[in-house]
Design brief:
Helices cover 0% and strands 52% of the residues. An eight-stranded antiparallel beta sheet has the order 6-5-4-3-2-1-8-7, with no helix packed on it. It contains no helices and eight strands. The N and C termini lie far apart (47 Å). The chain has 130 residues and is an all-beta fold. It has one domain: Lipocalin (Beta Barrel).
């Protein structure tokens, strides 16, 4: 059971929301979100088709808060060896509740066209008040 492909994800916590894109190729995960977060890791199939175990590292740029409720930090941060278990086909866009330190999130993951894989390298979004 291979998870190879390109996926969009949307997530929320008690204090915010985010969206991003990841690619999985030969069980290697790479991705980015619109807040400047970067993800890299490994995806392993669980026995019996029970889903996937994802182990990843996360880069958080300076001045970005986490949706679980952390204050923005003056310097960039890394969170290493985060492990989560996900259902088969990542539940095809259905909400999945997880504990991702430092708190709970709800994430929705859905397969998208591999033509959009370049988004997993990161994009910059700037919002200004109208």
């Amino acid at each position: 059971m291979s998870a190879d492909g390109t996926y969009s994800f949307a997530y929320c916590g008690e204090f915010g929301v985010g969206v991003g894109v990841v690619t999985i190729q030969s069980n290697i995960l790479k991705g980015a979100d619109l807040g400047g977060g970067r993800y890299s890791g490994v995806v392993s199939a669980k026995p019996g088709g029970a889903g996937y175990r994802v182990r990843y590292d996360m880069f958080i740029p300076a001045d970005v808060f986490l949706v679980q409720g952390t204050s923005p930090q003056d310097i960039a941060q890394r969170r290493d060896d985060i492990t989560i278990d996900l259902p088969p086909d990542f539940d095809n866009g259905e909400p999945i509740k997880l504990f991702v330190p430092p708190g709970n999130i709800t994430i929705m993951i859905r397969r998208i066209s591999d033509d959009l894989a370049w988004y997993a390298s990161g994009v910059k979004v700037t919002m200004t008040r109208a």
